[in-house]
Design a protein that fits this description.
Helix content of chain A: over 70%
Radius of gyration of chain B: 27 Å
Radius of gyration of chain A: 24 Å
CATH topology of one domain in chain B: Rossmann fold
CATH superfamily of the largest domain in chain A: MetI-like
Strand content of chain A: under 5%
Structural class of chain B: alpha/beta
Largest interface: A-B, 27 and 34 residues
Number of helices of chain B: 20
Number of domains of chain A: 2
Distance between the termini of chain B: 68 Å
CATH topology of the largest domain in chain A: MetI-like fold
Number of strands of chain B: 24
Oligomer: heterodimer
CATH architecture of the largest domain in chain A: Orthogonal Bundle
Largest sheet of chain B: 8 strands, mixed
Distance between the termini of chain A: 11 Å
CATH architecture of one domain in chain B: 3-Layer(aba) Sandwich
Shape of chain A: globular
CATH superfamily of one domain in chain B: P-loop containing nucleotide triphosphate hydrolases
CATH class of one domain in chain B: Alpha Beta
Shape of chain B: globular
Strand order of the largest sheet of chain B: 6-7-8-3-9-10-12-11
Chain lengths: ~325, ~675
């Protein structure tokens, strides 16, 4: 198991290197120049000389391979460089925002698992009854409704019905958990609903499939209580595919909260990303892409390790 | 189902003449299934009973209702599609069908246990064996962990699994098929049940393993006084183990009686047909098998009157009325108007149509030292790889119009040899001389040309036909694409081929899912014949088929050979079928040839201990013969091809082996003229 993990972690290096290469050179090929954006944005008249000097200051005049190598050596020593726009270290820019995004993602994941596994299971066990129909309506709605729209609806409902609006400024969890939750629970719910819908549908279909397996019939033939047939014999097998979906959706959320953060006025990674792209802040974009790549690759590893725990066939072969 | 009838209301179970109350009696059971195309009565008024300590076999082909009626006893029919619509199932004075679910659950695994067909899928892959065995002990007997563990170890010992303590912590995938079925038996035995129902318990296993498992079940049921109901399609298994049997056809019982009576004097034409359509190991039968023509009826729309009548060769007008299952003396019952006239004398088998001569001179195919090694990655991420010697130094010849049988258990390399001959795999070493040309080294374009002369018939008629192509299109494809036929000419040729394989011409319009298994296999044969081959590799062509259909296909293959002079490489695990079709036979074990001989020499004078073990293991459908055959099940497991034994690969299981057998690989040598074996003890 440990060897396996070590090997997988080693294999992450070429993957990440590939991502770095692609990102770096694609950013250089695409049109967009931060210096122009920064200095000439408002139609200001700036001489070409100043632009050149600014480019030199940001290191953009050096040959591409040199730039790449500089970035890479920085990455290895955990020096991500400074944002070209704000001039503040990238690590700091990301650091102040990652907590919020991760918290919303984790909360959404918890909400979705809490909703999806019971709902999916009940729906499967009561297949084609009114219970199943209700669950299916609920989950299809979750897939169909965009989470930003649900978010806006949530805010409006809170305002017009309860005459209460969630706090506007971000409070870190450890400062004031209540205040923090009062703000973040709403985006987490809005995103978690869709998340739950995806997972619940997966759980439903995989339980239906597992309940048809021969070993379920064997368990029943042994006189096992139906409750145990489901919880012990069916669930573990059925959760295997669900684990994949839960994990990949989570990784997606870390970079995919863009619109939701906008709606709830949260200063998270998604928003930082949008800002960085619109300003062509290469250094920041690069680092953010790498961050998301690391999250995805790590999540994949976590999923595979979980498989090993849940499925002995994977563990031993 | 909420009103449990009081004991007084329950009619006492019928007491048989001897005064013994049956342990279980199924009375007038009726089961329906709802399908997309209507309601199907899978079991229609079936009654059978089993006495304490007795072994009863329910026999029949797929879809006859045997498994369904057994599942109904356990109340495990798939809901909501299947349901019992009538009848009673009396067990120890109670009607199981009217018990509350909780009481029924308490009986399952406690008083009645069930063993299923597929050991590969019947155990939960993510739970340890220990947990799965302990489950019924804890639920029904209230054992604690330590007691359950002790009992589990005892049970594993009982079913012959060594090193029980360690194996309790393992998972199903760490056990071989035969071992898993032993675990299933251990689970069945856990709570000391009164009755065990075994649904095709050995069908998925190799011959020698099948013999072990059946022997085990028989010994245990005798020693522990357990009543057994075995559901099977294999008449040999019935003959070896059952005291009584009930033959089912199309949802009804057509004949019942003691095994001796039914096998010696079957009183229903279906039973007669079944017994005669199986090739037997103990009787050389040249010529064609006496088969049952046609197909079982569609139960969505069953025929009126006798359900077997449409396929019965002794059919009369009266068969349009329903024959009742009636006593015909000696405890035997038959549902035939002419039961007393049964069994009719066997038809004089037409002496092999033309026991055609195999041309002397150069053989059509000569395989010399054929070897195939696979690199297989070992488990574990730094496990490296191992060499699997799938075929090692295999040599044989096939003459024009000759059939060479290739037999062995799983992993013996028989399919690999077939694939090598077809050049679906490239050999590691050796020559495959086809009509003088070495297929192993021939160029790609030449191979393409030669492929028209070499064809193949696969085992699984379901997956080897394209589901989106009609039968006619499937057969016509090689004609149009390889032989340059124009559409009208191809149409005529397809019609001719359909005639040749015994399919109606209008079946050409159908798609594979609209055909039965036997019909699909006929399509597969027609497709192979389309190229007018000299040689066909038949890879287990009948093993997926029901007994009566198997006979039809076997006959078709031998007729085609007689008519067209095609040579076959007939790969199979069923020794009786191989005997029926083959001229010469190659026996393989773990990639090596153990014995090569002419058919008659091999079966009358098997030399190699493995061949003898195989012949001993295969049950013969005759209880009288079976009784005098001392059961000598070959012990041990099939070794993993990843780590084959050194020296003679068979020495780990061989009753004759000595220490010298582990030293050197025995060469294949001629013991008698034309009879070769690889054993140093001969």
């Amino acid at each position: 198991m440990i060897r396996y993990a070590a090997r997988r972690i080693a294999l992450m290096v070429p993957t990440l290197l590939g991502v770095a290469l692609l990102t770096f050179f694609m950013l250089r090929v695409l049109p967009g120049d931060i210096v122009e954006v920064k200095l000439r944005a408002d139609g200001g008249h700036v001489t070409e000389e100043i632009l050149t000097r600014e480019r030199a200051r940001l290191g953009l005049d050096r040959p591409l391979p040199t730039q790449f190598v500089n970035w890479m050596t920085g990455l290895v020593t955990f020096d991500l460089g400074d944002s070209m726009w704000t001039g503040r270290p990238v690590a700091e820019e990301i650091g102040t925002r990652i907590g919020l995004t991760l918290q919303v993602s984790v909360m959404a994941a918890i909400i979705s698992v809490l909703i999806a596994i019971p709902l999916g299971t009940i729906s499967a066990l009561f297949r084609d009854t009114w219970i199943d129909y209700l669950v299916r309506i609920f989950t299809i709605a979750g897939l169909a409704v965009p989470s930003f729209w649900l978010g806006m609806l949530t805010i409006l409902t809170l305002l017009t019905v309860f005459h209460w609006s969630p706090p506007v400024t971000y409070t870190p969890f450890f400062e004031d958990p209540l205040q923090n939750m009062a703000q973040l629970i709403w985006p987490a719910l809005a995103v978690g609903y869709r998340y739950a819908a995806v997972v619940a549908r997966m759980v439903r279909s995989s339980i239906i499939e597992v309940m048809r397996e021969d070993y379920i019939r064997t368990a029943r033939a042994k006189g096992v209580f139906e409750r145990l047939v489901v919880s012990r014999h069916a669930m573990r097998n059925a959760l295997l595919p669900a684990v994949t979906v839960i994990g990949l959706e989570f990784a997606f959320l870390v970079g995919g909260l863009v619109v939701t953060e906008q709606v709830f006025n949260l200063n998270g990674i998604g928003r930082l990303f949008v800002d960085a792209v619109s300003r062509s802040d290469f250094v920041l974009i690069q680092s953010l892409v790498m961050l998301l790549a690391v999250v995805f690759v790590t999540m994949n590893l976590v999923i595979d390790m979980l498989y090993g725990v849940l499925d002995p066939r994977v563990r031993y072969s | 189902m909420n009103n449990l009838p009081s004991l007084e209301d329950v009619t006492p179970s019928p007491v048989l003449s001897g005064g013994i109350v049956p342990l279980l009696s199924v009375e007038d059971l009726q089961i329906e299934f709802t399908t997309g195309r209507g309601t199907l009565r899978a079991v229609d008024g079936v009654s059978w009973s089993v006495l304490p300590g007795e072994t009863l076999a329910l026999v029949g082909e797929s879809g006859c209702g045997k498994s369904v009626s057994a599942l109904a006893v356990m109340r495990l029919l798939t809901k909501p599609a299947g349901r019992v619509v009538g009848g009673r199932i009396m067990f120890q004075g109670r009607d199981l069908l009217s018990l509350p679910e909780g009481d029924m659950r308490a009986i399952r695994g406690r008083d009645i246990a069930m063993i299923f067909q597929e050991p590969m899928t019947s155990l939960n892959p993510v739970l340890t064996i220990g947990l799965q065995i302990a489950e019924p002990l804890k639920i029904h007997l209230g054992m604690n962990d330590a007691e359950a563990r002790a009992r589990s170890i005892e049970l594993l010992g009982l079913v012959g699994i060594a090193d029980a303590e360690r194996r309790l912590g393992q998972y199903p995938h760490q056990f071989s098929g035969g071992m898993r079925q032993r675990v299933m038996i251990a689970i069945g035995l856990a709570c000391d049940p009164r009755l065990i129902i075994a649904d095709e318990p050995t069908t998925a296993l190799d011959v020698t393993i099948q013999a072990q498992i059946l022997e085990l079940m028989k010994n245990l049921s005798r020693r522990l006084g357990i009543t057994l109901v075995i559901i099977t399609h294999n008449l040999g298994v019935v003959a070896r183990y059952a005291d009584r049997l009930a033959v089912m056809y199309a949802g009804r019982i057509v004949e019942q009686g003691t095994a001796d009576e039914v096998f010696s004097a079957p009183r229903h034409p279906y039973t007669v047909g079944l017994l005669r359509s199986v090739p037997r190991l103990d009787q050389a039968r040249h010529g064609s098998l006496e088969t049952i023509e046609g197909l079982p009826p569609n139960l969505l729309n069953p025929p009126t009157g006798c359900r077997f009548a449409p396929r019965c060769r002794w059919r009369q007008d009266i068969c349009a009325t329903d024959p009742a299952l009636r006593d015909i003396g000696g405890g035997q019952r038959s549902a035939c108007h002419f039961a007393e006239a049964m069994p009719p004398p066997p038809e004089a088998a037409p002496r092999d149509v033309a026991r055609h001569r195999i041309e002397a001179g150069t053989p059509l195919l000569e395989v010399r030292g054929l070897t195939k090694h696979f690199d297989v990655r070992l488990p574990g991420f730094f496990g490296g790889s191992a060499l699997v010697r799938a075929a090692e130094e295999v040599s044989f010849t096939i003459g024009r119009g000759e059939t060479l049988g290739l037999v062995g258990e799983s992993g013996c390399g028989k399919t690999t040899v077939g694939r090598l001959v077809l050049r679906l795999e490239d050999p590691t070493a050796g020559q495959i001389l086809f009509d003088g040309e070495d297929l192993a080294t021939v160029s790609g374009s030449r191979m393409k040309a030669l492929r028209t002369r070499i064809q193949v018939i696969f085992q699984d008629p379901f997956s080897s036909l394209n589901p989106r192509m009609s039968v006619a299109a499937t057969i016509a494809e090689p004609l149009l694409k390889r032989l340059g036929f124009k559409a009208p000419a191809a149409r005529d040729r397809v019609a001719e081929l359909l005639d040749q394989v015994g399919l109606l011409r209008d079946m050409g319009e159908r798609f594979p899912h609209q055909l039965s298994g036997g019909q699909r296999q006929r399509v597969g044969i027609a497709r192979a014949l389309a190229m007018e081959p000299d040689f066909i590799v038949c890879d287990e062509p009948v093993s997926a088929l029901d007994v009566s259909i198997q006979g039809q296909i076997v006959n078709l293959l031998s007729e085609l050979q007689a008519k067209l002079g095609i040579a076959y490489l007939f790969i199979a695990h069923d020794l009786a079928v191989v005997r029926h079709l083959s001229h010469r036979i190659v026996v393989m074990y773990l990639g090596r040839v153990m014995e090569i001989a002419d058919r008659d020499a091999l079966y009358s004078q098997p030399l190699h201990p493995y061949t003898r073990a195989l012949l001993d293991a295969a049950p013969i459908p005759d209880p009288v013969v079976e009784r005098v055959r001392a059961p000598r099940a070959l012990g041990g497991e099939l070794p993993s091809p990843l780590f084959p034994p050194t020296g003679c690969v068979f020495h780990t299981r061989c009753p004759m082996a000595g220490p010298e057998c582990a030293m050197t690989v025995p060469p294949l040598r001629e013991i008698h003229p034309g009879h070769m074996a690889a054993c140093i003890k001969l």
